[in-house]
Amino acid sequence: KQEILKWNGWGYNDSKFIFNKKGQAEFTGKRYRLSGMVLPVLKEWMEKSLGASLEHKITSRAFLNTSDVPPSIVNEEFLQDLRATKISYSQEAEDRVFRAHGHCLHEIFVLREGMFKRIPDIVVWPGCHDDVVKIVELACKHNLCIIPFGGGTSVSSALECPADERRTIVSLDTSQMNRILWIDEKNLTAHIEAGIIGQDLERQLGESGYCTGHEPDSMEFSSLGGWVATRASGMKKNIYGNIEDLVVHIKMVTPRGVIEKSCQVPRMSTGPDIHHFIMGSEGTLGVVTEVTIKIRPIPEYQKYGSVVFPNFDRGVACLREIAKQRCAPASIRLVDNAQFQFGHALKPQVASIFTSFLDGLKKFYITKFKGFDPNELCVATLLFEGDREKVLQHEKQVYDIAAKFGGLAAGEDNGQRGYMLTFVIAYLRDLGLDYYVIGESFETSVPWDRVIDLCRNVKERIVRECKEKGVQFAPFSTCRVTQTYDAGACVYFYFAFNYRGISDPIHVYEQIETAAREEILANGGSLSHHHGVGKLRKQWMKESISDVGLGMLKSVKEYVDPNNIFGNRNLL
Amino acid sequence: MKCYTPVIYKGLSACKPSAIKNSVLQSEQVQYVIKQLSKEMGESTDIIQEEAIEILDEMGHNLHIGAIRFFAFSLSKIFKRIFQRVCVNEEGIQKLQQAIQEHPVVLLPSHRSYIDFLMLSYLLYTHDLALPVIAAGMDFLGMKIVGELLRRSGAFFMRRTFGGNRLYWAVFAEYVKTMLRNGYAPIEFFLEGTRSRTAKTLTPKFGLLSIVMEPFFKREVFDTYLVPISISYERILEESLYAYELLGVPKPKESTSGLLKARKILSDNFGSIHVYFGQPVSLRTLASGRINRCPYNLVPRHLPQRLSEEIQEFVTDVAYKMELLQIENMVLSPWVLIASVLLQNLPAIDFELLVEKTLWLKGLTQAFGGFLEWPDNLCANKAVTSSLALHSNIVSLVNGQVVLNDVGMEDGATEELVFKQALSILMCGAYRNQLLNVFVRPSLVAVALQMTQSFRKEEIYSCFNFLRDIFSDEFIFFPGIALKDFEEGCFLLTKCDVIQVTPQEILVTERGNSVAVFLAALFRPFMEGYQIISRYLSKETKEAFTEKQFILGIRNFAFQLLEIGSTQCYEVLSSDLQKNALATFVRLDVVKKMKTTNGFTYTINKEALSKTAEMFDSQIPIRKLVTARL
């Protein structure tokens, strides 16, 4: 699988944004709806919003220079023991570098221009739960450090190897543990090996007419075990729930032994739920090997939708009302004006004059007839799922509420494009990197009454910090509300800037991200809604969960893994 | 007609005053308090709501451009007539203009006269800047037509005391915050709370300041700009009124007819006014790293919340910082120097000598960082002469000697000599006081040197610390930085070659002796005043007394002393000094303040009193208050 993925960027090798010979942006490959299309206005948007220019290009090196890679240091006795288990392994530089990072900006930057100080010494591919047990036993015996690796889509520096780790680092790649072990149609559960990748899981379950409904934006590449280890959240959580709602049973291998419950029940009152020590443990306690997860019959009907609001405040008020009435569709997202305009920049070339005429008409209707300010308006994208009739009914209910907040239905197409963008936007960062633009996304959760203030303040803080740090072009700083809950919402920020003229862009970038996180916390937001803490946000853990809380987690770690075999040093 | 198109806050959602009132009334904050009160008092919410509406109406501003034009027109006529000129720092205006567009702005002018806010609004109007809404005292409302006019030009009114009234507090606070949050207009109020009768900056009040800071604490706004504004008058309109007031002749209630009587002022000359707009200070920058965010994250934002100690401390610091910035930019006129010299050379001083000493003081003031406005084109002689002419109601030139006038009551009733003398000294003192703000640190070092009669730095510092503590209601000191203040005082003295500082000792230079004497003499009235008051208290026999009784008592006591000539300290008659002293004694636990059904009463702790009195009176070395690490 490693072969079809980029080694120094996001996603598939064949899919990327390029500027073609005519200087127009194009998305290559065949995998996405946008693939093979020309995006005529993207270039202009990049020039206008980020001050990027096609003339200033830097290209990443094309291949990994294996001589730069830190040597693999593995004790021969361990290798002998490992060979005896017949578990496949590798000490190749490419394999080790591939598993030395996630997808934080600074990690990608290092891949393009430098080299990590520390990477795994050896990669192992256990094929099943028992293999994992053997590896962990060996690691304990030889005092090695294990870092579990699933899909490698972490954005919290969770996969980075601690630079001062002197022991041999074993990257435990779960990708070969990817079978659905059984499906229980009576209880609607499935027992699955934790290494399975999201899209494979959904496809294979689909063959039997089921789905989990768990769709994080990274689902093309992220793994079930990774979801459990970070407390993941899926786009359609309104119907299916987040990972903690989906999981029925977890099996995890720790240095102390295997932890699991004795039954597979919907709920039990047996003290604090041990699943909650595992979910969000970020690879510090052990390796999740098998998970029993709830499944649902594939819904009969799906429908996208979108609503235009005169401004962000009205949009948030509408989402709040929808959450209050508990009638949120499978997914509802509200993007702010900047992101709405950005979405337009990714519009493919229009096929016929007729469509462009229609687009013009729509625009005229909304801005002139309805009086929406094009620099204020924002869009909510919707996804409904279920029985056809119920979906239509549900749709009407939501549009009726939206109308009370000045929202105008803006068509299925806009909605669908919004969701498609979620998947391709990650590719866009690689394009930006070629033109001195660096960017990242981060998220938080916040009570309803503070959503608007938080969004405004964080965006403003980013703009201000950029200015103070000498960034010469105004940054792209935008947000969207991506999930609604009874008591609050999840907010997602995108942030990018042009770093021409700055000598140490990554350092500047990190300072700004830190400031943005400070701002989030000062506005009553959380440290993370679903990305996790990793090493990137560790500094705020104590403040977030109190001294005692941190002590509790530490004492669990102390008991489960006294020798710090799972030594990625995340979280605590 | 002037075209008035001010720049506005970028996040402004335009709305009318009535809409603001409505949104205040409907706000969660006010509704919450209404419900609470209704539960506690068993009254229906409608009745309390009615009450809230009344409060709002009584309070609310009603900005009308017509009223402003009228005001601007008449004010420009009046100002032109009574003031020679009004100077404004243009770059300050530009910065303000910039600030108004970025974030909500709070204007914090100094308060010396009724003219302050009229002048400020007028200036902003003529510079095409957004007119502020002003928190003014309710006493203006009593002025029939004028009150309404003020309201229409943006003033809103607050009761002087409403500590106990929760509904009033909630409505008022929400009113201010609503205007701030949606950037309706800059908010203006006086940190000092009231006009300073003595021209010394009064210690700040924190209530309004904490209200305007709250939206930022709760992150309802990204930032708030605080703009310190210093308004300096060459001659204060109310100068004699203040002196009477300080001496206990009751203050006339503000009334329209009173204002008309003030017409005779129109024929008078009040010199020039300097308005200095300070650099807008970002509250966010001030707060960075100081505020623990937790308290605001764990309680819904509309609930009334007691300020945490940390926040209270922060508000206090900001208030003092702003007042110090005001002081820094106060413009000192030549007359301020003349008054200071004159008061040390009573009853009369030779004109030539006065000029010479004034020039000498000018140099010293500049060295201490005073913001002096000296007419460059004039020779010193002329500058002094013109100052004397401007203040001819206080001083006159008789046979080459400059003397204080006896200011009599207008009705010609024969007053006691002491009273007359006191009036002119207090008037004069109000100008000298402007200098004290700048001189206080080096001067207190000089006083400490005199008191301790010692070279030992440690001893001098502990005396300085004692004095700073005693006078912290009298002058503005940033809380908790005694050592820094001391070092600054020493630095300025060293700079002027008055003292030499070694690691252990402080030595007065030969040349510096006269300066040190002058500096100490500058603060003599306060030293002596406090001494007399502590002497009075040690003679006080009553078990408990009220503030009123205290002031009457001390006044009689001082009158007697002055009549028999055993003191020359007329300023002890100032009720301002008396009240400050009382507050100081309360703070030092010399006097105990107790709340009773009708106000406060005070009792004396004789033991503590005698200790403090000892420290004051004597040249006895002062016991170590703190072991400072120098």
UniProtKB/TrEMBL annotation, chain A:
Active site: Y492
Keyword Mitochondrion attached: no
GO MF terms held by the record: alkylglycerone-phosphate synthase activity; FAD binding
The protein's annotated pathway: Glycerolipid metabolism; ether lipid biosynthesis; Lipid metabolism
Catalytic activities: 1-hexadecanoylglycerone 3-phosphate + a long-chain fatty acid = a 1-acylglycerone 3-phosphate + hexadecanoate; a long chain fatty alcohol + a 1-acylglycerone 3-phosphate = a 1-O-alkylglycerone 3-phosphate + a long-chain fatty acid + H(+); hexadecan-1-ol + 1-hexadecanoylglycerone 3-phosphate = 1-O-hexadecylglycerone 3-phosphate + hexadecanoate + H(+)
One Gene Ontology cellular component: peroxisomal membrane
Family annotation (PROSITE patterns): FAD_PCMH
EC numbers for this chain: 2.5.1.26
Cofactor or coenzyme needed: FAD
Occurrences of domain FAD-binding PCMH-type (ranges): 116-298
InterPro entries listed in its UniProt record: Alkyl-DHAP_Synthase, FAD-bd_oxidored_4_C, FAD-bd_PCMH, FAD-bd_PCMH-like_sf, FAD-bd_PCMH_sub1, FAD-bd_PCMH_sub2, FAD-linked_Oxase-like_C, Oxid_FAD_bind_N
Principal localisation: membrane
Cell compartment(s), UniProt: Peroxisome membrane
Binding residue positions for substrate: R429
GO biological process, any: ether lipid biosynthetic process
Similarity comment: family membership: Belongs to the FAD-binding oxidoreductase/transferase type 4 family.
Subunit and interaction comment: Homodimer.
Annotated protein name in UniProt: Alkylglycerone-phosphate synthase
TrEMBL record, chain B:
Phospholipid/glycerol acyltransferase domain ranges (all copies): 105-234
Subcellular location: Peroxisome membrane
Source superkingdom: Eukaryota
Pfam families, per database record: Acyltransferase, GPAT_C
Keyword match Protein biosynthesis: no
Keyword Transferase among record annotations: yes
Main localization, broad class: membrane
Record keywords, A-Z: Acetylation, Acyltransferase, Membrane, Peroxisome, Phosphoprotein, Transferase
GO molecular function: glycerol-3-phosphate O-acyltransferase activity; glycerone-phosphate O-acyltransferase activity
PANTHER family the UniProt entry points to: DIHYDROXYACETONE PHOSPHATE ACYLTRANSFERASE, GLYCEROL-3-PHOSPHATE ACYLTRANSFERASE
Function recorded in the entry: Dihydroxyacetonephosphate acyltransferase catalyzing the first step in the biosynthesis of plasmalogens, a subset of phospholipids that differ from other glycerolipids by having an alkyl chain attached through a vinyl ether linkage at the sn-1 position of the glycerol backbone, and which unique physical properties have an impact on various aspects of cell signaling and membrane biology.
InterPro entries: DHAPAT (IPR028353), GPAT/DHAPAT (IPR022284), GPAT/DHAPAT_C (IPR045520), GPAT/DHAPAT_LPLAT (IPR041728), Plipid/glycerol_acylTrfase (IPR002123)
Gene Ontology cellular-component annotations: mitochondrial membrane; peroxisomal membrane
Protein's gene: GNPAT
Descriptive protein name: Dihydroxyacetone phosphate acyltransferase
Pathway in which this enzyme or protein is active: Membrane lipid metabolism; glycerophospholipid metabolism; Phospholipid metabolism; Lipid metabolism
Gene Ontology biological process terms in this record: ether lipid biosynthetic process; fatty acid metabolic process; glycerophospholipid metabolic process; phospholipid biosynthetic process; triglyceride biosynthetic process
UniProt family annotation: Belongs to the GPAT/DAPAT family.
Annotated EC: 2.3.1.42
Annotated catalysed reactions: dihydroxyacetone phosphate + hexadecanoyl-CoA = 1-hexadecanoylglycerone 3-phosphate + CoA; dihydroxyacetone phosphate + an acyl-CoA = a 1-acylglycerone 3-phosphate + CoA
Entry membrane topology: Peripheral membrane protein
